Structure formats: C-alpha cells, structure tokens
C-alpha cells in the first residue's frame, strides 16, 4: 500500500520551509520501518522508489513548479527512471534523501535524488525522467519554465544523463515483441 500517512507528514513538514529554486537541493529525513523491508531484512527496492516519491512531491511543492501545476491544471508523471543501489539500508536505519531538478530537454525534466546513510555513505541514486502533462499530452519544459517565471534554458545536461537519454531513444517499444 502506498504510504499516504508518511506523504501527508512529509508535505506538512515541508510546507512551512522557504521556497527553493528548481535546481536547488532539498533534504528530507526518513526511517526504514519494518513494513519497508524485504525477505533479506533490508529496504525493499520497490519501496525505495516510493520513498523517493515521498521526497519528490515536497520538492515540487517548495519550487515554483507546484504553483505552475496548480494554476495551469497540469499534472506530473514519471516517464522513466534509472537506479543505482550501492549500500544496504536496514530496518530502523535513518537516512536523508537529497532531491533536485537537474536539467531538461525539449520534452522532459530530469530529477536527481540520492539516499544517504547517517555514516555518510550513499546508499542509492536515482535519475527520474518526468513529464508535465495536460489533456493534450506532454507540456514542453519551455512552457513550464515560462509558467514558473524562469529562463527556459536548461543547465548543461551531464554526459551520463545524455548517455541515458540516448540509450532510451533506441530502446524498443513496445518491448519483448517476438
């Protein structure tokens, strides 16, 4: 089940924080609860994506994006993700999630997030490709930036992000056609 209570708590906690820019880093604090673990007694990989979601929504709320979404009647959807897990998060471990908008292209906004253990080790890192949508489909980031009263020019797209974008462009869809 989706952690709605944790989401509400996170939203309430962040809504009193000062606004930040789309590419500024925001930190949220979390705990790995017993219902977050898998049979190996560590944070379940699927649940980790839900926890990243719990940090991404307050990020949107603290940036100009949230007001633009509400004003225009737009929605956000995830259009892809790449994940790198490196350290285990065990039951009752506390950790910090760092989140920020990284860059954008002609269709998507790329959001980077990482999970940090209290000992300073990075447990995992994700790159999300997100789209802002309306009833007609994807809203161009240029238009989204205009609604946020910010320049439409993206920060430079890092090489590793550009490589992922290129790889996704040649990935077959629909998949597994025989």
Automatic annotation (TrEMBL):
InterPro entries: HotDog_dom_sf, THEM6_lcsJ_thioesterase. It comes from Donghicola eburneus. Gene3D superfamilies: Hotdog Thioesterase. This is Thioeseterase. Pfam families: 4HBT_2 (PF13279).
């Amino acid at each position: 089940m989706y952690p709605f209570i944790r989401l509400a708590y996170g939203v309430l906690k962040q809504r009193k924080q000062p606004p930040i820019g789309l590419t500024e880093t925001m930190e949220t604090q979390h705990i790995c609860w017993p219902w977050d673990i898998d049979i190996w007694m560590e944070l379940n990989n699927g649940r980790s994506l839900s926890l990243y979601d719990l940090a991404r929504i307050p990020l949107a709320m603290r940036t100009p994006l949230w007001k633009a979404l509400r004003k225009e009647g737009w929605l956000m959807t995830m259009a892809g993700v790449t994940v790198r897990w490196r350290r285990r998060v065990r039951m009752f471990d506390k950790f910090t999630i760092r989140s920020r908008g990284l860059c954008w292209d002609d269709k998507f906004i790329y959001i980077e997030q990482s999970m940090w253990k209290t000992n300073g080790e990075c447990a995992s890192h994700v790159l999300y490709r997100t789209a802002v949508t309306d009833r007609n489909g994807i809203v161009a980031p240029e238009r989204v930036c205009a609604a946020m009263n910010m320049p439409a020019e993206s920060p430079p797209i890092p090489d590793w992000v550009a490589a992922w974008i290129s790889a996704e462009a040649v990935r077959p869809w629909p998949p597994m056609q025989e």
